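Researcher: Can you fold this with adenosine-5'-monophosphate-propyl ester in place?
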Amino acid sequence: MARKGKEAVKEATEALLEEQRVFRPLPEVVVEANVSPKEYQEAIEKGLTDLEGFWEEAAEELDWFKKWDKVLDESNAPFYKWFTGAKCNITYNAVDRHIKTHRKNKVAIIWQGEPPNEKKKLTYYELYRRVNKFANVLKSLGLKKGDRVAIYMPNLLETAIAMLGCAKLGVIHTLVYAGFSALALRERVNDAKAKVIVTADGLYRNGKIINLKETVDEAMIECPSVEHVIVVQRTGQPIDMSDGRYLWWHDLMEGVSDECEPEILDSEHPLFILYTSGTTGKPKGILHVHGGYMVGINRTLRWVFDLKETDIYWCAADVGWITGHSYIVYGPLICGGTTVMYEGHPLYPKPDRMWQIIDKFGINILYTAPTTIRMLMRFGSELPRRYSLKTLRLLGTVGEPINPEAWMWYYQNVGRERCPIMDTWWQTETGMFMIAPLPLSLLKPGSATKPFPGIHADVVDKEGKPVPVGKGGFLIVKKPWPSMLRTLWGDPERYVKQYWDVIPGGVYTTGDVARKDEDGYFWIQGRADDVMNIAGHRIGTAEVESAFVAHPAVAEAACIGVPDPVKGEVAKVFVILKKGYEPNDELDKELRQHVRKELGPIVIIKSIQFVESLPKTRSGKIMRRVLKAQELGMDPGDLTTLAD
Ligand code: PRX
């Protein structure tokens, strides 16, 4: 077991270290790209010498009700403000402004249901009308600027409409991934004090119907702030709507006016809260705002993914994560593009589903995650080879480091050695791509290449000193950027402590470790803290541990991430049982079920090991590092603080 882990790590490390292949973009890709090599060079220069000028120029591409007095306000760092004095609304930019142009009848969203025969297309004008109606529904329920709405939905058109409708009024939305459990939903709804939950009766996942409404019912046992639950009828199975707080989406939308003026908002007005895992059991509510966020995602999408008016663009993520917010909904709509939203599982009904969708809609840009690529690789290259995929121009990946083998498979079998791969490094906190190539870049498989213009990223030691070329260190960002998080909802102290007080010099700590090579390329190596990355989902080991100890049989638990060939990482948990409990298969099964209930199916537990004791520091802190080293057969490092 340990041998296997050790070998896997050695292999992966060697593969990364030996990775020296460089891929040049095809001349036609460079010539046709939105940004020329000269413009790119100038942008890099400007990002270094005139940061505010660079972002001001980017902001000019959007519509503002009133322009800013100041581009960047650093007076209360690290609570940075961007475009202060400006008035705007992101929904106005994503929807309203397009209906005054030739885009009025252009398809804004192509929605593909999991059942293959279900698809819908929505033009900008239709989207505009529905967003207005939904905003009016919220108004009729008494919602006002600054109130919170939780959206617990799969990838449906209504999900995008709900997000845009909230933003139109200055109502703050918080999406909760539909795979999260009732307890996780409740925790987020209560932290945000949401007045409304928008959900669906059910969702399709891998051919099965999952009843979402039931999960909401369970969460609602203790959600005192919630006044109404709006339910979209998606799967149509009978559900109990007798509770007066539950209202059907379709009833509410009927007969409502399709006109609604956008709220004129301060640039810094909150847009959404998105919860993500940290190193404690309590998720962090990342707060993003209207102005800077739209500037960042517009510029990065146009430049990195080269999004064009004529493109059909598919980001195969879930709207419940930041990728879905920035690059399924807001980004592509702001750019006036056509965004594809797929409801279901990538392998349903067969493992060629993704290739089939690409050919069906003539997709030009595909953005997915390394874990999905590795999963698809298992079915062999014959499957994508059966499809033309000729419309593809550009590919993207996100969520975790992509191993060169998966990169090559994607490049050869999907992109047919014609499409450059944009490996985009970013986070829920950053809102937009931070380290990523442009179509003109030289690519090295496994590297996210270089920081985007205006992003001052570096790799440093814990004192903040840059580490030598080729050496690992902490990935940091030295200057603010417009789509950065503004704070943690309700916890500004944790915001400062977690991101700005870690490494000296007033720099933003990403929590990742990385190295830079001799060409200045960044190689992300993973998390520096106790956060796992399971299939591209961030899950704190502390969250898993607290779920375990919530079970009556468990006295103590320690969780570590261990490598997995498809998921990237999975959890292994060491458990000390309370007196009177015996370790056995039944308890193992029960614990797994319990954790699934507490946290949802996204936590993949490889194994549970029942132990008598755990390695701890003298002050009683569990040394996960020691467990991990033991598991993977590596050097555990300094053991002087180990108690026993
Ligand atoms: O560890 C990095 C990894 O995912 C983390 C951010 O997770 P989350 O906030 O959930 O956002 C994921 C989608 C943006 C990072 O701290 N990560 C993300 N993209 C990459 C990556 N690691 C390596 N390469 C990437 N391209």
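Model: Folded with adenosine-5'-monophosphate-propyl ester in place. Residues 276, 322-323, 398-401, 423-428, 448, 510-512, 524, 527, 533, 538 surround adenosine-5'-monophosphate-propyl ester (CB under 6 Å).
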